[in-house]
Design a protein that fits this description.
This protein is mainly alpha-helical. The protein has a single domain (7-111), classed as Response regulator (Rossmann fold), CATH 3.40.50.2300. 54% of the residues lie in helices and 12% in strands. It has helices spanning 7-16, 33-42, 60-68, 81-111, and strands at residues 22-25, 51-55, 73-76. A 3-stranded parallel β-sheet has the order 1-2-3, with helices on both faces. β1, α2 (33-42) and β2 (51-55) form a beta-alpha-beta unit. It starts with 6 loop residues before the first helix and ends with a helix. The relative contact order is 0.14.
């Protein structure tokens, strides 16, 4: 999927073709990255897609808010391509582990 120029456009694109991962900047036109992440987490079709949030602002409060709205990884700019790749891999691995854990719980309930 191509990048979107706004949060609403990104959500519309994602609903028609769900991505494997979201890269969200906190500062975006219309909806900010926090609002988009919250919308992703409320959307049944998108709620399990991992989110990596990016920002140029260094702030503990922003970091905490990113995790509170459901981001798996929070990164401050500038960063190297290798660091971004590592963050994407971590987010994808964590999402996979969450799905495995959820599937095990569902299976356990079915057999109980």
């Amino acid at each position: 999927m191509a990048g979107a120029t706004s949060g609403m456009t990104g959500l519309d694109l994602a609903r028609s073709d769900p991505p494997d991962l979201f890269l969200l900047d906190i500062m975006m036109p219309g909806m900010d990255g926090f609002e988009v992440c919250e919308a992703i987490r409320r959307d049944h079709a998108l709620c399990k897609v991992p989110v990596v949030m990016l920002t140029a602002m260094e702030s503990q409060k922003l970091n905490e808010r990113a995790f509170a709205v459901g981001a798996e990884v929070y990164m401050t700019k500038p960063f190297s391509p290798e660091r971004l790749l590592n963050a994407v891999n971590i987010a994808l691995q964590n999402a996979l582990l969450k799905r495995i854990k959820s599937d095990k719980k569902k299976q356990k309930r079915k057999t109980a």
